[in-house]
């Protein structure tokens, strides 16, 4: 493509706005198309805000447009998981071996507003433009109401239910599958109490209950956003206010006094779906491409959905550098560069769901975490936990998975060797004792 092509980004959510800022900085003329009205005027949809856990990958992307300090001014650092058993004491499990590193609770709506402001300074934004048709060969877009537009490059940043991905599936041979969990999610709110946080704001709170869990993340207004992750049939089973109250009193007894609007929230906030999107190829002809959840939506249990999408933007920017802004080369290279990593984090997010709901309350799990942190102290820079590599570094996800697998193999071999040595010493002592 000669000159600086015009780029259309479908979806003005987190990834789309960040991408617009990066591409505008490269000199591209960028227009964002968003199906919703401007959320800064309309407000967030009730019960759909799932707080984000912003970590190093996301912060690294925000640094690229100078937005990290502004975003972090409203962030609340969480240095560990606070486990709430049905009965007994709370248990704080630190994320890093030194206890100093944190992930950051961020309001999705506030972060989106900050990114919209940044994008509006650099690009055009067209709200209330729902994409209904796309010709991948020409870049011609059709919007609800019959309006059309055309761009040299069209990028779908329009989320897990991407209309751009659907167009590629219909007209460009994309194959897609969404693996839905048999769990849904619903939000509740723990308000501030007498102007203060009702729980420790320096932790991500988890109520692990085997096949289900509740989590809570702090907000700048001193409230907490709670999210229930339950089997779908469990939501339907609580069909009266009395059933809701009885269930929470039995399963989350310490939380009940903190949620004065429990029944109202439960009955009126929607149940959302959770799933992993598998799609390929992510692009067609070097003209139309997918990024973020539109290409590879994942479940939220590693706190990496937005972080991964932001990292997509950084990688796309890098491959544009490498390809000299040749989109026909950059889009296929971007897919090759990111596919293994996004597949790896999708798998690890599912694994972490099991860990969060089933394992974190186990004494065996706690002992393993203490041992892992001790190893990190004894072998600085050589042994790092999977959580720290995911949350506090920019090491590619697939490389993290391979490294952790090698660490565990080496550890198992060392334990086995130590056991054999111990047996040898015991045998020698017995022989000498004869």
UniProtKB/TrEMBL annotation:
Record-given protein name: Kynurenine 3-monooxygenase
Family: Belongs to the aromatic-ring hydroxylase family. KMO subfamily.
Organism: Nonomuraea typhae
Top EC class of this enzyme: oxidoreductase
Keywords for this protein: FAD, Flavoprotein, Membrane, Monooxygenase, NADP, Oxidoreductase, Pyridine nucleotide biosynthesis, Transmembrane, Transmembrane helix
Task performed by this protein: Catalyzes the hydroxylation of L-kynurenine (L-Kyn) to form 3-hydroxy-L-kynurenine (L-3OHKyn). Required for synthesis of quinolinic acid.
Biological or metabolic pathway of the protein: Cofactor biosynthesis; NAD(+) biosynthesis; quinolinate from L-kynurenine: step 1/3
Domain of life the protein comes from: Bacteria
């Amino acid at each position: 493509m000669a000159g600086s092509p015009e780029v259309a980004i479908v979806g003005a959510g987190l990834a789309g706005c960040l991408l617009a800022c990066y591409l505008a900085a490269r000199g591209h003329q960028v227009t964002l198309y968003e199906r919703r009205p401007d959320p800064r005027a309309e407000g967030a949809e009730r019960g759909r805000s799932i707080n984000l856990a912003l970590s190093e990958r996301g912060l690294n992307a925000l640094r690229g447009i100078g937005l990290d300090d502004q975003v972090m001014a409203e962030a609340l650092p969480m240095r560990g998981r606070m486990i709430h058993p049905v009965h007994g004491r709370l248990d704080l499990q630190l994320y890093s071996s030194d206890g100093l590193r944190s992930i950051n609770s961020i309001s999705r709506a506030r972060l989106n507003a900050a990114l919209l402001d940044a994008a509006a300074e650099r690009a055009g934004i067209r709200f209330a433009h729902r994409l209904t048709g796309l010709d991948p060969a020409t870049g011609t877009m059709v919007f609800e109401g019959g309006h059309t537009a055309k761009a040299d490059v069209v990028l779908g940043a329009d989320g897990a239910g991407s209309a751009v991905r659907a167009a590629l599936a219909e007209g460009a041979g994309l194959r897609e599958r969404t693996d839905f969990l048999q769990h849904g999610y619903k939000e509740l709110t723990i308000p501030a109490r007498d102007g203060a946080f009702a729980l420790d704001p320096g932790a991500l709170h988890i109520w692990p209950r085997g096949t289900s869990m509740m989590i809570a993340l702090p907000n700048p207004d001193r409230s907490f956003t709670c999210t229930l992750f339950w089997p779908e049939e469990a939501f339907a089973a609580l069909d009266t206010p009395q059933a809701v109250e009885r269930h929470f009193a039995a399963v989350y007894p310490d939380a009940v006094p903190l949620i004065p609007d429990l029944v109202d929230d439960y009955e009126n906030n929607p149940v959302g779906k959770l799933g992993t999107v598998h799609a390929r190829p992510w692009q067609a002809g070097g003209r139309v491409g997918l990024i973020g959840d539109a290409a590879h939506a994942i479940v939220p249990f590693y706190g990496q959905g937005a972080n991964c999408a932001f990292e997509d933007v950084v990688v796309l920017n890098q491959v544009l550098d490498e390809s000299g802004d040749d989109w026909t080369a950059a889009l296929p290279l971007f897919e090759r560069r990111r596919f293994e990593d996004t597949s790896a984090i999708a798998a690890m997010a599912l694994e972490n769901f099991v860990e969060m709901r089933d394992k974190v309350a186990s004494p065996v799990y706690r002992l393993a975490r203490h041992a892992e942190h001790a190893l990190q102290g004894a072998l600085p820079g050589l042994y790092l936990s999977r959580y720290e590599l995911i949350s506090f570094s920019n090491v590619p996800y697939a490389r993290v998975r391979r490294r952790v697998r090698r660490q565990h193999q080496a550890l198992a071999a060392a334990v086995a060797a130590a056991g054999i040595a111990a047996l040898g010493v015991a045998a020698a002592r017995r022989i000498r004792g004869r």
